[in-house]
Amino acid sequence: MKFSLAATSALLLTAFATLAKADEYADAMKEWCDGLTVTKPDDQAMIAAGAETDVTVTRVPNDHQKTITGLDLYSVDQNGKAKYIKNVWHGSYELNQQSTIKDTIPSNATAGLYYYRVWVTNQINGMHGPDCLETSHTFRVSTASHQNADGSMYYAEDPDDVTFYHPEHFKGCFGLSVEYPQEGATVKTGEHVRISVNRDSASQTESLLKVDLYKSTEANKAEYIDTVWEGKERFVDAFTLKDHLSIPDGQYDADATYYYTLEVTSNKVQDETCTFHSQGFKVQKN
């Protein structure tokens, strides 16, 4: 996709002021946390409320001494927000190649997607170094289960029921929201539009790949306008881009609603991406 030098420059200047710093930090943390994985529970797990499960952490050995110091349980609500449930364990558990901690799912847990977040502390010359935060894959929790005579398990909820187990959230597409442009805002062509994104520290989203501009027509169909940014930038929490808004005359409609989409990677699924949308806004010709 071709885009103007002015639009590119305006966007990249802001991107480098925010994303680049986050990317530098992410690169530094990657060096400390590389090779760290929570292998259990995995994407096949379905666990009943009140049941015990294993949380297994593995690492590729390197020069950094690592210790597991905390374990938190989270859920993902239907709106794609990470919800902290509780700290299920804290202490000091040396991590060489593999360590397992047992936990019991709360007996009053509702059906839905859950995951564990593990705190792993690096030791530097015997002192507390940077913490690595790694999560398990999301897993399904059912309100009840029993074992059939043939050894198979029956669960109160169907594991394919999207009411409880949202497929996008299951692959790690949650915990990220586009705060600006705000819903119903009016912007003018030729001006810089702020695209602000907040990412929960417990989110499993990882890198921004692309930002596209779309128009919603009267038939409620999405019409592609332009790609306003493309690359690969890891992000940590919040970041802002600015788009020098330009819409071709043939695609401008004063009554239409416009919005941005963000293509983002998940650190749990390698061959698929996530898509997040801004709220709809109006555009006036300058």
Please write out the topology.
Elements (H helix, E strand, L loop, with lengths): L4 H29 L2 E5 L5 E3 L3 E8 L5 E12 L5 E14 L2 E7 L7 E13 L2 E9 L3 E4 L2 E3 L5 E3 L11 H4 L5 E5 L5 E3 L3 E8 L5 E12 L5 E13 L3 E7 L12 E10 L6 E5 L4 E3 L2
What this model shows, in words?
- Helices cover 12% and strands 51% of the residues.
- The chain has 286 residues and is mainly beta.
- The chain has 2 domains: 5-28 and 174-284, Immunoglobulins (Immunoglobulin-like, Sandwich); 35-170, Sandwich (Immunoglobulin-like).
- Strands 2, 4, 5, 7, 8 and 9 form a 6-stranded mixed β-sheet that branches. The protein has a 4-stranded antiparallel β-sheet with strand order 16-15-18-19, covered by helices on one side. Strands 1-3-6 form a 3-stranded antiparallel β-sheet, with no helix packed on it.
- Residues 1-18 have low confidence and may be disordered.
Helix/strand order: HEEEEEEEEEEEHEEEEEEEEE
Second-tier CATH architecture of the largest domain:
Sandwich
Domain count, please report it.
2
Q: What is the residue-mean pLDDT, rounded to a whole number?
A: 88
Task: Output the radius of gyration.
Answer: 22 Å
Protein structure class: mainly beta
β-sheet strand percentage: over 45%
| Beta strand count | 20
**What name is given to the CATH topology of the largest domain?**
Immunoglobulin-like
Shape: globular
Largest sheet properties: 6 strands, mixed
CATH level 1 class label of the largest domain:
Mainly Beta
| Distance separating the two termini | 24 Å
Binned, the helix content reads 10-25%
Question: For this structure, what is the CATH homologous superfamily of the largest domain?
Answer: Immunoglobulins
Count of helical segments? 2
Low-confidence stretches: 1-18
